[in-house]
Amino acid sequence: MRLAPRTILLVDDSSADVRLVMEGLRHAGCGSNVLVASDGARALAILRRQGEHVDAPRPDLILLDLNLPRVTGWEVLAEIKVDPDLRLIPVVILSTSAAEEDVRAAYGLHANCYLTKPGNIDDYFSAMASLQQFWLELATLPSNQPVGAWGEP
Amino acid sequence: VIGMGTHRLERGWATKPLRGIDLLSLRARLGAALAAAAAVPMLLVLSIYATQIESQAIDDAMQQQYVLAAVVAKNVADYVRLHQAAVAALAEQPGLSEMSRSSQERLLNGLATAYPASFNFATFGPNGQPIARSRGADLTVAPAHSLRPVGDREQTLLATRLSNLTGRPIIVFGSPVHDAAGTDVGLVTGELNSAELAEFLVQASAAPGAEIYLVDNRGHVIAHPDSKLVSSLADLSTRLPVAAMLSDRGTAGSLVYDASAGQRVAGYSKVPVLDWGVVVERPTEIVLAATEVKRQTALVALAVAALIAAAAGVLLAGRLTSSLAMLTRAAAAFAAGNSDVPLPRTSISEVSQLEAAFVQMRERLATRTRERDRFEDGLRTLNADLERRVDERTAQLEDANRELARSNGDLEQFAYAASHDLQEPLRVIASFSELLGKRYHGKLGGEADEFINYIVVGVTRMEQLIQALLAFARVGSRGTAPSLTDCGAVVDRALENLHAAVTESGAEIRHEGLPTVMADATQLTQVFQNLIGNAIKFRGPEPPKIEVGAACEEDGWRLWVRDDGIGIEEQHAERVFGIFHRLHTKDEYEGTGIGLALCRKIVERHGGRIWVTSKPGDGSTFSFTLPTLPPVLAGGAEA
Fold first, then answer.
1. What pTM, to 2 d.p., does this model score?
2. Binary contact (A117, B463; C-beta < 8 A)
């Protein structure tokens, strides 16, 4: 059974990287709705439905780059994971760094997955395909409806 | 005792040597010494002198007394002889024996009154019967049996006896009476009262304390100042001077003897003809009384002389010590740093010598002190200068260290930036050029495909270089603290990481006898991995044979990786450890040129060194050293 299209929040300041992720997802046959935030502040505004993002949909999955201008990916991750509502949304870190301390720090902030962006395009597409397959198809994610909405007609 | 000790400590003669009356001071000592020096010989002389004057006085007394005795004896003798002659003359009176009793009595009374002294006469018949006597005559019986012949006058007889009338001694003279035919027809006697003789003794006893007495031939007292002795006709024959006189063959003598009342000096003389004796005695103390006065005078003189000597000594010592005290003050002042205190003017050659020596010492010391002060000043300046320079240098070094730390930090920053910021655009370039190649392959013309390929290769290479540089930069900062590490296990892990290369090359790798060392296991793994990896990479045509070994040497462990590969020319042996240094083209051998630089950095971080010995074609041996374990850890590691 095919579920309703998922919503993904992609947080990355590099339009090239955004494009690469989009290409990768498309290559993997992903039909999800992708929201893009070019910096941390905007990502948090979308998640909290602040300002112009009042009507923004609640994402099912967040793809987060750590190296962001102004509010960094680390801060965004920390904010999400201390918020009792937002922390239910899985966060997948997309980083160029393979450094052990970065990996440990990210999981320490309760990131749900850490992916190092492969340098090679084939590996990149393959990684995007795996990501699409695991997180958007295989894994069961919490409903993006508020908890209190359950049981209402 | 404790109090005295404390007192002496408080007095501290070493600190206050010349104040008050200090019995230990030179002044007091010299005064006492001079007084003693004056007094002792004088005392000695005085005692000899005193003994001499005493014995002289005694000798004089002895002499004087026996002369006196002799004089008295002669007077007594003359006196007695006078009366004796009178009796003898009476006895020779012609016709005496024919005279009637009353006639004789008249004659005798007449004679007796002619003598001023108490002198009485008596006549006796041939059988000793009394005939007549003068008034006052004592004798009633002829004392023929008690009379004895005296001297050359055989006709004269003498006896001493106590008077029946007065109870005092009387001296009895007797002369026989002869008739015309010379027949002994009777006896005439004369009685002389001894009191008459005592008068002589009293007259003679001018010397004070003198006791003069007269004894008869048996030692019985005839005359003595003590009337008791006289009235009992006391026997003094045991008295030493009397005994001496009685036994003396000569006429006079003297002696000193110890009586019960003390020592006495005695002189004696026999009375000529009569065999009596006169003794003059005096107690020695009276004899010496005069000399005692002399001795006391001498003692006073001695004391005065000693006092004068002591005063002279004190004065002399004062003069001596005043210059010494000045010298002491100068020395004390000098000790306190003042070298200008005036010195005493003294005529005492020892003190002036001492002073000269002190002045010399003071000048030398002052000179020496000035030199030393100058030297110390110089030294201090030098020290200060040195300290300042050291401080400056330290500051510079600290600056340099801070600069170095900062630049190291910058390098870390750079490395981190390289990993994120530099790699990011590179990856984008790589990704899109690959995507371009993938999506438009064959659509843009052959040349475009070739160019796109170069872009991809170049970017990939750059990514590798950046990764290598990052790894190199992280050796110092990202390493962990050294811990006990088994090199055998480390090599095994390196071989696991190199599994693909080992399998592909068919390398034969042996390792044995590898030690346990203190090291960062991850970095040590990297060293072995790089060295073994290189050994495989630069192999010869045959499957490589690689040996990993270790030996314990003087400066620690030497570990090595020996191969039979292509080897390195000697002139490159050092350069291979430089960063990004390569001996081969990328087409011949892949690689970034960072591996050996990384190895060197890791080994050096562990306190060791790394080098290669090689011969082209014969293979290479990469060696490095690591410190040995401290003994305690070495024991634990083996267990």
1. 0.41
2. no
